[in-house]
Amino acid sequence: MRAVVQNDKSRAWVAKADDRGRARVAKADDRGRARVAKTDDRSRARIAKTAAATTALALAALLTGCAGDPAPAPAQGGPARPLDPRARQAAEHARLAAAARRWGLERTPLTPPAPPAEKPRITPRDGFEVDGQEEENLPPVFTTVPTRQKVVFLTIDDGAEKDPAFLRMMSELKVPYTAFLSNYVIEDDYGYFRRMQAQGVTLNNHTLTHPYLPGLSYEEQRDEICGMQTVMKKQFGKAPTVFRPPYGNYNGDTLRAAKECGIKYAPIWDEEVFVDHWEYRDWDRRLHPGDIVLTHFRGRDDWNGTMVDDMRNFLDKVTREGYAVARLEDYL
Ligand SMILES: [Zn+2]
Description:
Blueprint: H1 2-21, E1 24-27, E2 34-37, H2 55-63, H3 85-102, E3 141-142, E4 151-158, H4 164-173, E5 178-181, H5 183-186, H6 190-198, E6 202-205, H7 218-236, H8 252-260, E7 266-267, E8 271-273, E9 278-280, E10 292-296, H9 307-320, E11 324-326
Parallel strand pairs: 3-7, 4-5, 4-10, 4-11, 5-6, 8-10
Antiparallel strand pairs: 1-2, 8-9
């Protein structure tokens, strides 16, 4: 019951933020004056601003609830007109910039390109295939999605830490990510992950109990993977098609069992980010277009910081190096 209430609250919060973001900007006259009008659900007050140059700042101030100009003047000249695309973009950028400052980021995360019209063909990373890979059409294990776009994909594993601030941060910053969940650490609070799912995050399979899969028989591996499929279908409404073997360890039986459980992809990762450092699979110790980045749902119990600190470490480097964070499922 508690989870449902929190879920509703969180949705209400998102809806309210959206309403606030639905500010409207209309070009006023040929002298370049802009009029900014904002419709508020409660007061229906309209605010007009005259200087085009201050539009973005004014919007940012409105959206953070710290407007320096407290006296909204009644708008003149009828109802606000629809926002033109450039103004809409500026308003959204101002909102994101304000959120980035609030969460202590060095700079505003970059907006990812539109999802590819044609999905890339995903093949196993060289050396990561198993016997029978192609003949049996087994799920590919890969660390990077083939793309030339400067995007990386954020994946977060296990599910031990359930930090509400993390959910707020990611939703305010609109950073997409994918969660790989293991039942033994999420079963005490499925509601947290339902809230995550309601924010558009895809929840994927990371086994029931997080074992070292190659040490298990085929049947045992199948029980771990199919068992988690059943849990996820029951708790989250659908069985995933994406699975990550614990520790990134697998053998032929793992991929065969995964396929039997309905899995199509087995992404692992090229970089791993922690609160205070990064680790790299490749010798060049760099991000590459399409890289999959791993981190974990961990907090102060395990790490020298929170999920929010971890995300700051992730986003600051990614943005500094000119990468946007894209949604993995958009490329699969
Ligand atoms: Zn794990």
